[in-house]
Write a structure and sequence with these properties.
4-stranded parallel sheet
Length: 171
């Protein structure tokens, strides 16, 4: 059923890579496939102007060390989640956290949701409360989300800045 819903939304190669392989251990580079595809789809100036940069797995792992100090059910947010690599790394380190990814590109939002789903399956964790919202996490209010409800904010280092909301980023 999932394969049918994704057909036409994602390239066939991605669907096969994500849904048809039986041993997830043989595909250590899966989430990065979407990032590489997006990197190749746009020119460097366009990626730079739009802030399209993908976090390598090694850096994502290092950046998510703070999740180890969180309580169970803590909320981890990535305001520009791309294909979900930072969220994947957070779940891998601490499967009992909830994650929220915000992504303005709907295709990458789907990729992030698949990354989260797959990581939950790999870690045998429920993911109750995980979400991916389509929107610009750096430009607008997020419905139903207050700064006090967020326990950790993750972000790709070369993001485009706080877009006039510096006071919120300093909290």
């Amino acid at each position: 059923l999932l394969r049918e819903r994704l057909s036409g939304l994602l390239p066939e190669e991605a669907i096969q890579d994500w849904l048809l392989e039986e041993d997830p251990g043989e595909r250590p580079d899966r989430p990065q496939w979407f990032g590489r595809t997006w990197d190749q789809a746009f020119s460097k100036p366009h990626r730079r102007d739009q802030g399209i940069f993908f976090t390598p797995q090694e850096l994502a792992s290092a950046m998510t060390e703070p999740v180890l100090s969180l309580q169970a059910s803590s909320l981890v947010v990535d305001l520009s989640c791309g294909a979900g690599e930072l969220l994947r790394a957070a779940i891998s380190k601490r499967p009992d956290v909830r994650v929220l990814g915000v992504e303005k590109d709907p295709w990458l939002g789907v990729a992030a949701a698949l990354t989260i789903l797959e990581t939950r399956q790999e870690t045998r964790s429920s993911g109750k409360g995980d979400r991916v919202w389509i929107g610009d996490g750096l430009a607008s209010e997020l419905p139903g989300l207050s700064p006090s409800s967020v326990d950790l904010v993750l972000g790709n280092p070369p993001y485009l800045g706080e877009k006039g909301r510096k006071d919120e980023f300093e909290r």
